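S1.2 Input.
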Amino acid sequence: MLRLSKLADYAIVIASHSAREPERTYTAAEVAETVNIALPTVQKVLKHLGRAEIFRSERGAHGGYRLARRPEDIHIAQIIAALEGPIGLTECSLAENHCQQSDDCDIRGNWTLINRAIRTALETVTLADMVKPAPREMPISLSGLRANVR
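S1.3 Output.
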């Protein structure tokens, strides 16, 4: 089963919460209380998202955290990468020669195709999309990916 880490999941929840009022600055305590995630965890996630320039911190009496860009300009793939690093299902889909079988593997290109499809899907969804009601179906086309794989 493919799963995001809890921290990546929390990061999407926190960023989506902020995307509802993107101009607003939130304290970590406000976010923790609103989204019902422990304060130390929220602080850790916000630190990662700050390093990735998804959030920015503001000091002072009215300081806190706010989105660094418009919700339409922040993709879910960027949030996941901020917490987990590059998106890849297998070692070979991230870099060559990380696997003992890489020299003799005849399916590596197919893993790359699958990895690219997942990454593309995650790059298609923005924070602005996350705060809208969910569509009944989300069509994903893999055509066009094959030409870029090998």
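S1.4 Remarks. The mean pLDDT is 85.
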